[in-house]
Design the sequence.
């Protein structure tokens, strides 16, 4: 299986270097025409499975929120050694990191990691799950969880912690928090903060300073972003 891949990089020197390394060491990647801006990819959303992004590019934040591409494709983040970008793409978690000049062994490793994630995602899409069950990918397996058993989700670095009613320990998923928002927000879940997703059925207390406590989870202290407090109060008053 070839993986449709595109490079987003304004630096032609680095772009050409990466293209040559991919052609030499990563035959599973089907290279599409490289582009200099993320916006150039929108017309080809359905075709792209993997994107290499040079973070020295100035990326359009509003575009990140609008494009389905940024929810479907996997990403490998590239950094220029002398010009690291301090503003990450918050809507996704990269499946690997590279820095220029790129080491071919590391390139092979991160491409293999991306391949596994893409295959896992495709296998999940093929499974016809009951509407009350969600498949959660972890590092080594898939966990099948009843949606009503999920108390909350918490975004971590490149992964998500899922706290459930039934499990004695938390589940750490390789999905980022954005994936769980897509999966669960139509099932009475709410995101009070960019790093948190809560099951409204388990809310036990809301403190005026903007903290949520969850039933069956004594550790929970979920912040409500100031910009969302009015919306949240209106929501729980309707429950």
Sequence:
């Amino acid at each position: 299986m070839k993986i449709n891949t595109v490079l987003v990089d304004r630096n032609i020197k680095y772009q050409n270097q990466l293209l040559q390394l991919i052609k030499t060491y990563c035959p599973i990647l089907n290279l599409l025409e490289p582009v200099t801006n993320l916006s150039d990819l929108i017309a080809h959303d359905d075709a792209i499975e993997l994107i290499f992004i040079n973070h020295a590019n100035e990326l359009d934040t509003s575009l990140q929120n609008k494009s389905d591409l940024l929810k479907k494709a996997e990403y490998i983040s590239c950094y220029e050694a002398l010009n690291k970008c301090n503003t990450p793409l918050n809507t996704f978690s990269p499946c690997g990191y590279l820095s220029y000049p790129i080491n071919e062994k590391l390139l092979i490793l991160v491409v293999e990691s991306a391949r596994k994630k893409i295959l896992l995602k495709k296998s999940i899409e093929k499974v016809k799950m009951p509407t009350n069950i969600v498949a959660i990918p972890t590092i080594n397996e898939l966990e099948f969880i009843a949606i009503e058993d999920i108390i909350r989700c918490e975004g971590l670095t490149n992964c998500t912690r899922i706290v459930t009613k039934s499990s004695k320990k938390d589940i750490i998923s390789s999905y980022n928090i954005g994936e769980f928002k897509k999966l669960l927000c139509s099932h009475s879940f709410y995101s009070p903060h960019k790093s948190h997703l809560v099951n409204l059925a388990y809310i036990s207390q809301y403190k005026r300073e903007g903290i949520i406590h969850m039933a069956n989870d004594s550790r929970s202290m979920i912040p409500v972003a100031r910009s969302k407090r009015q919306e949240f109060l209106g929501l729980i008053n309707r429950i």
Q: What stands out?
A: The first strand starts at residue 3 and ends at 8.
